[in-house]
Amino acid sequence: MGLQEIQKKIKDAFEVFDHESNDTVDVREIGTIIRSLGCCPSEGELHDLIAEVEEEEPTGYIRLEKFLPMMVKVLLERRYRPIPEDLLLQAFEVLDAAKEGFLTKEELMKYMTEEGEPFTQEEMEEMLSAALDPETNTIQYRDYLAMMVIDEN
Amino acid sequence: MGCNSSIQYEDRKSEKGMKAAVLIQNWYRCYKARLELRRLQAMNIFESIEYADEQDQLQLANFFSFMLENYTPNNKETSESLSQLFINTRKRKLDPETFIRNINVPDTYYGPRLKFPLTFSDVILLIDAFKENQILHARYVLQLLQEVKKVLQQLPNIVPVSSTVSKELTVCGDIHGKLDDLFLIFYKNGLPSGNNRYIFNGDFVDRGQNSMEVLMVLFSFLLVYPNDVYLNRGNHEDYLMNMRYGFTKEIMQKYKEHGGKILRSLEDVYTWLPIGTIIDEKILVIHGGISENTDLNILKQIKRNKMKSVLMPPITCSRIDLKHGHHDLPLSSISAIDQLSKIEWDQMVNILWSDPRSKKGCHPNTSRGGGCYFGPDVTNNILTKFALKMIIRSHECKPEGYDVCHDGKIVTVFSASNYYEEGSNRGAYIKLSQDNIPRFFQYQSNHLTQGKTLHERVDIVESAAFKILGERMISQKSSLIKAFQKYDPNNTGKISVSDWAKAAEEVLELSLPWLSLCPRLVKVIENGYVLYKMGFKDMPIVKAPQVAKSGMVETLVRYRSDLKIIFNIIDKDQSGLISMEEFRAMWKLFSSHYNIDIEDAYVDQLANSMDLNKDGSIDFNEFLTAFDVVHRLDRNSIKSQN
Predict the structure, then answer these.
(1) Most A CBs within 10 Å: which of B9, B14, B25, as the mutation test of the A interface?
(2) Strand, coil or helix: B421
(3) pLDDT digit string, tens, across residues B356-384
(4) What range(s) does the EF-hand domain occupy (chain B) (predicted)?
């Protein structure tokens, strides 16, 4: 993709969240914007990116002027690449201590809301709504991942 | 040593677990972000197209003026019917009260039988009936409308409200026929009563399936609690808007025999709705917004019932007299008495149609084609000038159901959840406490999206958005192809994605992220090129009659809503038929005004094919339905623009 096209793509995503049409977005939406552009920074990495583009005296808003060059670099350098499917599967397998091929609802909830970069209540509920098999009350993670891959394409 | 290594092992294990958790959380958040972007983009599409539609609607107003100046029909009757649109001197054979009383309600009718004056229990009966999907008999509808008109006529243009400690005051925004949302508000916030006052800020009807029921409920509460329920006029409380946006259709479907009378009664009742409310002389509640010229003193004085429809702007007599000097047209009898002055007209249109924006100043509202965009400086000036603290308005759909801008001085409240599609947005209402600080309450009537995952919900919103975008595109197909070809001088059949995006924006005049939309709408081949002649993905089809040429088909698809309105107006006895001559004369005007380049012979051919009875009249509803757009994925339905 040429530079111009990358810039347009970033601007388009930014615009969606620019509710005032004044080339600024609420800092709380930056994570969503960056992720929607195909990058997968962790919360910690996101924090650092925001620090790069924030004003000297943080206003709660991020300007396109500052965001654009940073984001172009991120995309050109192919940083924060999305996680490949097999790695994801391995991650689930790590959590599956009993190696049974599934996680119980409690197990998943514990990890997601207590470990790593914890989910909010809302995020947890949303994930469960698609991932939980209501009959067994478990997360059949292989099936779940397979479904997600199809959904995304 | 043994202990140490087992601790180390535990540490490594929990570290692995933590890393795995982070990975999964990270992945999930990225997935969610992509869905959120798609959802917001879909909303953007809906909004752009909705406003573009409104713009078309307002352009129709220009056409009517043009029509009046240039329409030279051969018979006096037709010219009279045209002028009657503007004078509204329909003569009734019976006086309305007698007429209504003579409408018979059959014994087989099990719905509510209202007695006037209405009581609270009548309203409860009505609500229960509507929950059972019953339809209120036309006789009661007409009686109710009659009574409501009497109440409304007593009210000033801007109704003053004083907040008191003992009484709660709630402000609701656009409802647009969503009875579920109205009931949800009543459930959460209580029914209107002496102690529980409500202001409904316009746009009660159109788009939703239960505009009639919403209106009946609101009107009956108004009758029972005239001092505690306030209804402001919105831009959809307009009989011509209703023709395009669905309420007229709903009425004709639910009330086959008396639908026409109900429509005429509504036409009138709408004009008596107050323009706004003012709370404690500090908070102005109006449907749309303001302009730099907004003057409450003018607004308080005008005869608000003279504004029949935003599509009927005031016409000046002298211009017409000159043109038709030798005709004995009753148009010359249109005097200043029956119309608003241009200044008064503009004041009202701005109140009903304007939108706040962050850009300073006052600019024409190009998305909607009427009213203006007003900046924070305009807000400050008007608030200062009239000693106001805040303006509460509606008119724009907001994802959270409400929005605050201009430094807290402009508050938007929108009460129709899932407005564009299931899952598109929340609805909200405002409660004002004694200190007049607004508190916001949100909800989403999720009766159909319950049990659907986030992904499914976004899919629903998105596919609906793409459907209507597709409709727009096929109605401009030839202009689009021409524009694409400009970027393909060697006629290779392909252009780059960015050229495609430029052309699409130019032709469709919708400012959308065309670059990202491109792969969803057309087939993109390697190297980022588009085979533009191959047509659009999941392209909707039009089952037009064989005799119609493709250019004509496109035009009729694009303008069918406008034509429907025009035909309805010409058809004064609402028989559904217009004469061939009327059709031809009107088409000539329409095509010259809108610069449509289609040979008269084709139009004739088409009209003749539509004259099924060979009696010289055209059933225009049938005619227009032929140009409705069908989506391949809709199996049995014909999706019309309503």
Answers:
(1) B25
(2) coil
(3) 998 899 998 877 878 999 999 999 999 99
(4) 475-510, 558-593, 598-633
pLDDT number for residue B90: 43
Q: Please give, rounded to a whole number of angstroms, the shortest distance from the CA of A134 to a CA of chain B.
A: 12
> In B284-328, which ranges are continuous DSSP H helix?
296-301, 317-323
Q: What count of CB pairs under 8 Å joins A to B?
A: 128
- CB of A63 within 8 Å of a chain B CB? The answer is no
Q: What's the pLDDT at B248?
A: 86
- Mean pLDDT, range B582-604, rounded to an integer: 76
DSSP, collapsed to helix, strand or coil, labels residue B509 as coil
Instruction: Tell me which residue of A14, A20, A19, A51 sits closest to A32, measured CA to CA.
Output: A14
B329-352: per-residue pLDDT in tens? 344 444 555 678 889 999 999 999
- The residue type of A114 is E
Instruction: Please answer yes or no on whether A20 and B358 come within 8 Å at the CB atom.
Output: yes
Alpha carbons B235 and B352: distance in angstroms, whole number: 5
Say yes or no to pLDDT of B57 above 60: yes
pTM over 0.80: no
- Which of B20, B27, B40 has its CB closest to that of A95? B20
Q: How far is CA B190 from the centre of its chain?
A: 28
Backbone angles phi, psi at A49, to 5 degrees: -60, -45
Among residues A115, A105, A140, the alpha carbon closest in space to that of B13 is found at A115
* Strand order through the sheet with A138-139: A103-104, A138-139, A132-133
Tokens of B244: 């395009």
Chain B CB contacts of A33 under 8 Å are 33, 37
Neighboring chain A residues of B20 at a CB cutoff of 8 Å? 90-92, 94-95, 111, 116
User: How do strand B158-161 and strand B276-279 relate by DSSP bridges?
Assistant: parallel
Measured between beta carbons, the chain B residues lying within 8 angstroms of A111 are 17, 20-21, 24
Q: Which residues of B are catalytic?
A: 236
Residues of B with CB under 8 A from a CB of A: 16-34, 36-37, 40-41, 44, 357-359, 403, 405, 453-455, 497-498, 513, 515-516, 528
B456/B30 Cα distance (integer angstroms): 17
Percentage of chain B lying above the pLDDT 90 cut: 38
B7's enclosing H/E stretch is helix B2-70
For chain A, positions 116-135, list CB contacts with chain B under 8 A. Answer: 116-119, 123, 126-127, 129-130
As beta bridge partners, residue B356 has B374
Residues in chain A: 153
Better-scored residue on pLDDT, B631 or B429 = B429
Q: B72-77 contacts: CB < 8 A, separation 24 or more?
A: B72/B324, B72/B327, B72/B585, B73/B581, B73/B582, B73/B585, B74/B581, B76/B328
Distance from CA of A40 to the nearest CA of B (A): 6
Q: Cβ–Cβ of A5/B24 closer than 8 Å?
A: no
Band of the pLDDT at B72, cuts 50, 70, 90? low
For residue B75, with 0-12 CB atoms within 10 Å meaning exposed, 13-18 middle and 19 or more buried, which class applies?
exposed
Closest B-chain CA to A132: B453
Neighbouring C-alpha atoms within 13 Å toward the C-beta of B554:
16
Q: What average pLDDT does the structure give for chain B?
A: 82
Query: Which of B23, B34, B453 comes nearest A91 by C-beta?
Result: B23
Dihedral in degrees, nearest 10, Cα atoms A135, A141, A142, A146 = 90
**A147 vs B212, which has greater pLDDT?**
B212
Residue in the structure block whose two tokens are 């459930």:
B187
Instruction: Spell out the domains of chain A, with CATH numbers in brackets.
Output: 3-77 (1.10.238.10), 85-148 (1.10.238.10)
Closest residue in chain B to residue A23, using alpha carbons only: B358
ipTM of the complex: 0.93
